[in-house]
Specification:
It is built from five helices and seven strands. It is of the alpha/beta class. The protein has a single domain, classed as 3-Layer(aba) Sandwich (Rossmann fold), CATH 3.40.50. Strands 2-1-3-6-7 form a five-stranded parallel β-sheet, with helices on both faces. A two-stranded antiparallel sheet has the order 4-5. Helix 1 links the parallel strand 1 and strand 2.
Length: 128
Amino acid sequence: MQSEVGTHTRRPRAFVIEDDVHTLRLLTELVESTGLEPMPFTRISSARRALRERVPAVMVVDDDMPDGRGAELVSELRANPRARHVKVLFCTGAEPARRREIALLGPVIGKPFRLNDIERALAEVAGA
């Protein structure tokens, strides 16, 4: 696909949904380093609105957000035929039992995370 200007190709998008601004910045930079175009969100509601207009290739999502659960958003995504294909990576500080529940929807990296663990998981999700 070509853009209107020259032969620049558009990179696949990745929604990064995280309420902690420092973690959001780090995840956004890591997503960009995988070759994806990051779109950061600090609220589930903002990401949900954006999903009405565009479907990303990847979503990196925290489960425990101020305005809802990331897992609920991903469940909605999975129910939408237009968005079922989206690859998801959860990055959450949830307790182990909750992480096991979330893992039914996609891979989970626990917080606090080691940088190499999140890099590896992002590369796997982005490359899948």
